[in-house]
């Protein structure tokens, strides 16, 4: 899968952001898109694009769609706590 190939990290990040934005439209079931993304996150938890989606990246401001998606993702308890403790406000502003 592309998430395991670091040559396409940028494209994967863009695609994950596009899914987050698509989730906010009324054209699809928000719950369905969230469930699909939850499965992707669980299966590829250690890939760079998924880490960027969950934790953000230095110098990258995420839009409201990504921030909103982060709130709805089901993450393992330890990871969820780590995200809350390490997510700087400046990343999402």
Summarize the entry for a quick read.
With 93 residues, the chain is mainly α. It has helices at residues 9-23, 30-43, 48-55, 64-72, 77-86, 89-92.
Structural overview:
The chain is an all-alpha fold and 93 residues long. 65% of the residues lie in helices and 0% in strands. It has helices spanning 9-23, 30-43, 48-55, 64-72, 77-86, 89-92. Helix 1 crosses helix 3 (48-55) and helix 1 (9-23) packs across helix 4 (64-72). The N and C termini lie far apart (31 Å). The model is unreliable at 88-93 (pLDDT under 50).
Q: What class would the helix/strand composition place it in?
A: mainly alpha
Distance between the termini: 31 Å
Oligomeric state of the chains?
single chain
Contiguous uncertain segments of 5+ residues: 88-93
Question: How much helix, percentage-wise, in residues?
Answer: 55-70%
- Can you count the helices? 6
The pLDDT mean sits at: 81
The counted number of beta strands is: 0
User: In what range is the share of β-strand residues?
Assistant: under 5%
Give a quick account of the main beta sheet: strands, pairing sense, barrel closure. Answer: none
Global Rg: 13 Å
* H and E string: HHHHHH
Query: What is the overall silhouette?
Result: globular
């Amino acid at each position: 899968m592309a998430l395991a190939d670091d040559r396409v990290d940028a494209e994967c990040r863009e695609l994950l952001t596009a899914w987050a934005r698509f989730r906010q439209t009324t054209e699809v079931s928000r719950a369905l898109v969230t469930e699909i993304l939850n499965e992707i996150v669980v299966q590829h938890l250690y890939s760079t694009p998924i880490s960027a989606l969950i934790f953000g990246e230095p110098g990258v401001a995420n839009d409201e769609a990504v921030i909103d998606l982060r709130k709805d993702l089901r993450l393992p308890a330890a990871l969820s706590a780590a995200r809350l403790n390490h997510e700087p406000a400046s990343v999402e502003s």
